[in-house]
Specification:
Elements (H helix, E strand, L loop, with lengths): L32 H31 L2 H16 L5 E7 L2 E7 L1 H10 L2 H8 L5 H28 L5 H35 L4 E5 L1 H23 L9 E2 L2 E2 H9 L4 H29 L1
Antiparallel strand pairs: 1-2, 1-3, 4-5
Helix pairs in contact: 1-2, 2-5, 2-7, 4-5, 5-6, 6-7
């Protein structure tokens, strides 16, 4: 990247190794160093103002009201409920007798070992196609609801803005629908497969699934309440060059620069200093 003289704009070359500009003679390194340092400080303070505003909005999203705190807690409750028994599955056959409790850990292990090619192959079968379609639909719906819960937790951190209200309601609504669809499709699959393999398989939805749907429904209601009432955001007072940040931004919109604000402040301080000095001299003059 090319370097230029800060005073005359001369493009410095590799051979220009001296600190002085070969055209105007100014010291390139120290020319208006105070002004440049002040400008850098102003830039850092302004970036801090924007960053602090984001932090304040995140705090409000999580703890800005009782409803916000309840929402944040419910997100973790929804994840915790997934460790409860969601369903129970039993398989019986020659030399096989196995019962499993379906929860988040079971699903993770099951998905990691699942042969999707075989499942899709069964779905194309003329005999078992419908059964395994219901099986895959139940699995996909449950996994979607789990994914939406995680997305909802992330979304909660950025929920103090207006556009986030509809987003959270949509996420929770889809989570309730997908979780309910998962329960329905699992029940249908369990009934259908029993017709093909009577006595070899049994599957039943457990209480954890209904608790999970209930928590999601409550979470949806809380987000609707928040969307209606809003969340107050308490912004921390930040300063730029000693001025309140909001005053600097308001002045900038009017075309007033920070340099002009500083010059005006310096002039006012000088007038106050002169007036104070004059008041201190008056008693001496009277004597």
């Amino acid at each position: 990247m090319a370097s230029y003289c800060p005073k005359c704009g001369y493009k410095l070359k590799i051979k220009d190794i001296k600190p002085e500009c070969p055209k105007c003679g100014v010291n390139v390194l120290y020319y208006k160093m105070d002004e440049r340092l002040l400008a850098d400080a102003d830039k850092v303070e302004e970036e801090h103002v924007h960053f602090q505003a984001k932090v304040d909005r995140i705090k409000a999203s999580l703890f800005g009201s009782k409803a916000a705190i309840a929402r944040f807690a419910l997100c973790f409750v929804a994840i915790g409920v997934l460790f409860l028994p969601l369903a129970k599955v039993s398989i019986s056959g020659p030399y096989i007798e196995k019962s499993s409790t379906v929860n988040l850990l079971f699903l993770y292990e099951f998905i990691s070992k699942l042969d999707f090619d075989a499942v899709f192959g069964f779905m194309k079968s003329a005999v078992l196609g419908k059964v395994f379609t219901e099986y895959f639909a139940a699995l996909a719906a449950v996994l979607l609801s789990v994914l939406l819960v995680v997305i909802n937790l992330i979304s909660v951190f950025f929920s103090a803005q207006k556009r986030s209200k509809a987003r959270n309601i949509i996420i929770d609504s889809l989570a309730v629908i997908s979780a309910s669809a998962g329960v329905l499709m699992f029940t249908k699959f369990s009934k259908s497969i029993v017709g093909f393999f009577p006595g070899a398989y049994s599957g039943k939805v457990s209480f954890g699934s209904f608790v999970f749907i209930g928590v999601l429904a409550v979470l949806l209601i809380v987000n609707i309440v928040i969307a209606k009432n809003g969340i107050p955001v308490k912004y921390k007072q930040c300063y730029i060059s000693g001025f309140p940040a909001e005053e600097v931004f308001a002045a900038r919109e009017k075309g007033i620069t920070l340099e002009q604000m500083r010059a005006e402040r310096d002039a006012e301080n000088a007038e106050k200093a002169e007036a104070q000095a004059a008041e201190e001299k008056e008693p001496v003059a009277a004597e």
